[in-house]
Design brief:
The protein has 14 helices and eight strands. The chain has helices at 7-24, 39-49, 56-74, 78-102, 108-138, 142-168, 176-197, 207-213, 215-228, 230-249, 264-290, 318-321, 327-332, 336-350; strands spanning 28-29, 34-35, 296-301, 306-309, 359-366, 369-383, 386-399, 405-406. Strands 3, 4, 5, 6, 7 and 8 form a six-stranded antiparallel β-sheet that branches.
Length: 409
Amino acid sequence: MFSIKFVMPLLLWCAFYYILGYISLFLDDPVNQVSFVWFPAGLAVSGFLLTSRYHWPYLFFGLFIVKTLLDVTLRHSFETSLMHSVISLSNDIGIAWCVRYFTRPHDSLYSLVVWLFATLVISAVAAALGGGWGVLLHEADFVQTLWIWWSANVVGTILLTTIAMGLFWRQESDRPHKWLTGGVLWLLLCLSTIYVFHQPIGGPRGEAFLFSLACIPVVVMILIPVVSGNQMGAMAFLSFCIIVIYYSWQRNGPLFIPGLRPGEPLLLAQCYLSGTALLLNFVYLLKHHQRSSPVLSYYLDPKSGILIWDQSSTSTLMQYLATINHTDQLFSLMSLGDQQKMRERWAIVQNKSTLNGSFQFLLALSPTHTLRLQETKLIALQQPDGVALIGYWVGEFQDQGSGRIIKGM
């Protein structure tokens, strides 16, 4: 059933998609009419990642209408606009699906690699389809269109997903002095970026000097999330991107090195911003890993079925699992397939056989609340009256109503 609470977020996603699309269409190749950077790609991927799968069709349909109206109003024929919308939104939902499907609990680095690999590969497929359509109807240069479309989607996805996920990533408690320090660093970032990228081509200090100065804003940018958290880092990175893109579009800054062919300076600007975004993502992960709670362990008496959780654990999983004190309660929250696999694992360990690999499963706490768990280790403990089991779980909590995922519990 469609939740009324989703209407406002849906409208906001569509509004931001339109604004970013409107901006992107001004940063285009005048010959092939393909944007050099397609910012809505990253916004759409973030929207799907932050939304429950149940609501994906509504989000897809809403963004599809916005994308089609945007293209029809500003440049393309109706049939081309429809085709571009299908390709673009399929690209975005495909990336989000790969991240959701292949994600591992308590392994954000793996999810980051999946996201990056899916972005590169799926964007290439989408670019080939878009380039083929351009050749078929408009006699466009296929290779040129393919390259621009692919780079536009990849850069847009990396930049906007980094910003959006940084804003929504679960934070530690805010502290005023951190925001004050972050504000000072943000001001320093803006001033240094403006100074470096405001310089005209062929300035008196030389291209090599300006190119080396371009490292300074990157260093300041990386310091901000370390000192003030991911949200401040995401907002600072948004300001950083706006300044770099604005001055690069004006053909200023150290990336416009004399002798480069048309389009190559903008490619350098895209690489510069994308590289900074990837560094920022690794900072997010390092901070997230440092404050992640330990795994939660349990003690099981197979004969009685009694479950005892490690009360000394600081894992946030405890708030969801503390009331489950018997295997019957546990199995009532699991699918039949997961129940069978769990029993098989317990039987293997009780028989003193080797257990290979971890086990991923779901606990349905309610129709809208799900725990995605992974049992990373299971051992047998010999007791006077038999064998007891000790297992170790990590996982993530997902609110199906809002689509919010809280990882690293």
